[in-house]
Amino acid sequence: MSQIFTLEQANRALCFVRPIAEDLRKLWVESNEKNILGENVHPILEKIEYALKELQQVGCFCRDIQNGIMDFPGYHNEKAVFFCWKLGENEINHWHGLKESFKDRQHLSPELTTALP
Description:
By secondary structure, the chain is α+β, with helices and mostly antiparallel strands. It has one domain (7-114). The protein is 40% helix and 24% strand. It contains 2 helices and 6 strands. Strands 1, 2, 3, 4, 5 and 6 form a 6-stranded antiparallel beta sheet that branches. Helix 1 runs antiparallel to helix 2 (42-58).
């Protein structure tokens, strides 16, 4: 993991991540509609690729475009984890292990969440 977030840093990053996640969801829907109609989706896919690169620059990972699920690398209870956020949530309140996914996420105890072990 290159960028490591504290919970506070990850929550602050949501002001950048949230609008990108919203755009990605809209682009995803638009690409599916155009694909069904047999229309060219290449320009939309380029926009999706650009948005994903923006998220990489922030340091988070888009795990699910359709549902707006993002992971932020960090530490919880001195263990490397992903802070997990889903579009529609006000802030990050969950985490999961590095080899786990959204379905495995657990509620955070912020007092035990730090930048480094």
